[in-house]
Every structure is written in C-alpha cells, then in structure tokens.
Design brief:
Layout (H helix, E strand, L loop, with lengths): L1 H17 L3 H50 L19 H4 L17 E2 L34 E9 L17 E11 L5 E12 L5
Antiparallel strand pairs: 1-2, 2-3, 3-4
Amino acid sequence: MPTATRSIGSRRKAARRQSFSLVESLLAIAVAAMAGSAVLAGVYAAVHSAELSIRQAVALAIAEQWLDEIYGSRYSEGELAPYTLALGPEFQERAGSTRAAYDDLDDYHGLVCQPPTDRWGVRIGRDDGAGTSRWEALAVNWPLLDAVRVECSVSYARKDDFRRPVSAGSVSDYRAIEVTVSFRQPDGTFVPVGRLRRIAAYLPRL
C-alpha cells in the first residue's frame, strides 16, 4: 500500500510540472501580441508602398499624356510672341470650357484641371482621342481618377542652366513646361505624386 501511495503522488507532481503558470501564460500572450503587431506593421507598409507605386505610375502616365498634348502645339502665336512676358491663354481661348482653342505652348500656363480631361473636355478614361466618349463598356470607372488634379506652368529658362528660371522681367529662347499631378487626400488637401519637366527651344529665322 505505501508503494501505491508514492506512485500516485509522483504522477501528480509530474502533472503539475507539465502545466503553465499564470505568469508564463501572460508572457506567451505578450510575445504573440508583439509578433502579430510586427506582422501587421509589415503588411501595412507593403500595402502602402504598393498603393504609392500605383499612384506614381498613374501620375507619370497622366503627366506624359499632358506633355504630349502640349508639345503638339506650336511654340508661340507669332514672330513677337516668343518673347512676350504675358504667358497664358488669351481671352478668346479662355472663353471656352475646353482646351480645344489652345494652339501654342504658353496657353497652358496656369492651367489647373480636376479631374483630368482631354483637350475636348472628355474625362480621361472615357475619351476616345477624337473629342468624343468611348463605348461605355470600354470606359474606365476608377474612383481614383476623381481625386487627381493636374497643374501646368510655363516659364522662361536660362540658356546656361535649364533648371533655373530667368530673372523677373527677362526672356530667353527656352521655355520650361512643367506638369504636376497631385492626389486629393481624405482631409481635402492635395499631395504632389508625379512631376515632369521639359524644355522647348525657339529657333529664330535667320
């Protein structure tokens, strides 16, 4: 009988050694929580990075399209216009609701468009490149485009450094065209995501 008693007691002690205490359980939960937080932070960073990459790609594509349109125009209105200080569309060009009348580079100075449209006023994603809308089944219904704003500026650039503008009241044979694409944030502010800049040169007649 004493032998049986010692055997039962030994099994009970072994069972107690195989269980977890409250402190050990809390430590295990804390470690699991920290590991989960690290994983979630990594997932959030990856999603945010992917979203930013998508927006940058869209912004640069829109900026390229804008510059292609601008560079399809002539340099200036006439022989004296290449050196005018009054950059921007003329009154009759501003009168319309579209850019169809824009026929030279400086007409695009100060242009702000949200959401972006083609030169005939058709929203990008729905335009067919000819001034009308494409078939509805082929139209792009992407809410992200509603948050896009395009801004364009035209200025004279220094001939010795295209990255710098000329001094106030001066002109040159070079114009810098810069297109900035921004996205609206939840608080209503706009954050620039893509920007492209090109130089156009004027070659006077000999």
